[in-house]
Amino acid sequence: MKLLEGTPQEIAEYQRITGQVPTAQRAVGATTASGGNLQIWNEATANAFWRSLDPNRNGGMQKKLLRFMIKKEDGRATPDELLKYLKINNKVLRGPLANITRNARRETGYDKALVVEWATDRGGYYYIPEPLLALLKQID
Asked: Most buried of 17, 28, 57, 87 (most Cβ within 10 A)?
C-alpha cells in the first residue's frame, strides 16, 4: 500500500494512470494513527467489498441501500430518501451504514475506509465518493 501525497491534480493523474482510487479526496495524503498507509480502492477491493455485503441474504439492506444510491446519477441521498426507500426508521438506518463501513474496512484492511460519507451542505446528505461510485456502478 502507498501513501498518496500531492496536489489534487497530481492525485487525479495518478488515479488516471494506475486506475486506483483513494477512499475519499479529503483523505488523500493522510496516514492512519499507527503510521500506516492510506488504503486505495481498486477493482479487486471494490469487488471483495461488494461480495462481502450480507451474503446470507443476497446483500440484504446493505446492498439495497447502496443500489439506491448507485442508481442516482450523483450517488447522493438524503436520510429521508433512504428511510422512505428502505421503509425503516432513523435508528435502524445506522445498522446498514455501520455494516457497510465495517465490511469496507475489513475488505480493504484500512481502518478508515468509507463507502458512504456524509456532507453537511444542502441540508445534509449521504454520498458515495465519485471515483468509488464509478467502480461500484461497474460491479452492480
From this structure: 28
Per the listing, cell 484500512 goes with 110
Residue 79 within a domain: yes
Report how far residue 39's alpha carbon sits from residue 1's, in angstroms, rounded to the nearest whole number: 6
pTM of the full predicted structure? 0.69
Residue 1 counted as domain residue: no
Give 24's pLDDT tier (boundaries 50, 70, 90). Answer: very low
pLDDT confidence of residue 89 = 81
**Given phi > 0 = left and psi -120 to 50 = alpha, else beta, which region is 123?**
left
Q: Quote the domain boundaries for residue 107.
A: 8-139
Strand, coil or helix: 138: helix
Residue 120, CB-side half-sphere exposure with 13 Å CA sphere? 0
What total of structural domains would you count in the chain?
A: 1
